[in-house]
């Protein structure tokens, strides 16, 4: 391995470390993908995770400036094919290798910027935010999975978006308390935190289930090396969603809902063997 290859490999491994530190569920899902996909998906997650940290974590800094600089450095790295920021270097490698549309990246940054400006969302802002913060991430991953097969990409584009949408909306429900108390945000349009009740919760859950149902059709059509990993992520979020559905509106506005790691591992093992036996 020459010096440049060592730099590339080290940068890609940073994406893996970030994923492992920040998300047990996504780490488990990635591990059940074909190994050829691992580094690419880790790199995508590392990129979006760090951008998200800018708007959610660095409260004593100028977040708008940090995000603008991160955006500028992202495009610079893609153009040069190089960055001394290992997260951006790993990400640009994947963008350039799989020809990821820059519009997806720009939509992502627009949604991150929305978190700096908007505390409540109307229907248009809500849909735009979900597209840029979640659906485009699914499309970036799909670009990796299809590896240049544009026909398959276009066929699975809508289900991939719906899977990202379902995941994000479940996160919104799970985090409704912390988003409001720590960041002053309520993502669901027309919903006031203080008046969040059963009827509002049911309407949101019906919308999420439609996304899950549409996404499942696409998962079954993914390339074999990607299908299992995406199915694990789907099942984890469906289980989390089912747990939330079984709780009252008051309950989820008073505590964050979690799936214990032991249950996550059970999902992984059950899905793996079910797939091998042709049961899932």
UniProtKB/TrEMBL annotation:
GO terms for biological process: carotenoid biosynthetic process. Gene3D superfamilies: Farnesyl Diphosphate Synthase. GO terms for molecular function: geranylgeranyl diphosphate synthase activity; squalene synthase [NAD(P)H] activity. Keywords: Transferase. The keyword Transferase applies. The keyword Transferase applies. This is Phytoene/squalene synthetase. CDD domains: Trans_IPPS_HH (cd00683). It comes from Algoriphagus yeomjeoni.
């Amino acid at each position: 391995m020459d010096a440049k290859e060592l730099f590339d490999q080290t940068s890609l491994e940073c994406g893996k470390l970030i994923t492992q530190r920040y998300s047990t569920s996504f780490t488990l899902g990635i591990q059940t993908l074909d190994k050829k996909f691992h580094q690419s998906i880790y790199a995508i997650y590392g990129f979006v995770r760090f951008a998200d940290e800018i708007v959610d974590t660095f409260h004593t800094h100028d977040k708008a400036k940090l995000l603008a600089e991160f955006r500028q450095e992202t495009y610079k790295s893609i153009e040069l094919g190089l960055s001394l920021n290992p997260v951006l270097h790993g990400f640009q490698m994947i963008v350039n290798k799989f020809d990821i549309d820059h519009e997806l990246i720009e939509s992502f940054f627009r949604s991150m910027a929305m978190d700096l400006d908007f505390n409540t969302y109307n229907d248009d802002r809500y849909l735009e935010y979900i597209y840029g913060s979640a659906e485009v991430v699914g499309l970036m991953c799909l670009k990796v999975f299809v590896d240049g097969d544009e026909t398959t990409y276009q066929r699975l584009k809508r289900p991939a978006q719906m899977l990202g949408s379902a995941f994000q909306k479940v996160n919104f429900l799970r985090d409704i308390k912390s988003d409001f108390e720590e960041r002053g945000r309520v993502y669901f349009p027309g919903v006031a935190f203080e008046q969040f009740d059963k009827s509002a919760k049911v309407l949101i859950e019906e919308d999420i289930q439609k996304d899950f149902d549409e996404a499942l059709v696409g998962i079954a059509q993914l390339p074999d090396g990607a299908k299992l990993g995406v199915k694990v992520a789907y099942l984890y979020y469906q289980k989390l969603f089912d747990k939330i559905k079984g709780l009252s509106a008051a309950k989820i506005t008073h505590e964050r809902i979690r799936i214990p790691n032991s249950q996550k591992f059970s999902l992984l093992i059950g899905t793996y063997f079910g797939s091998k036996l042709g049961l899932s």
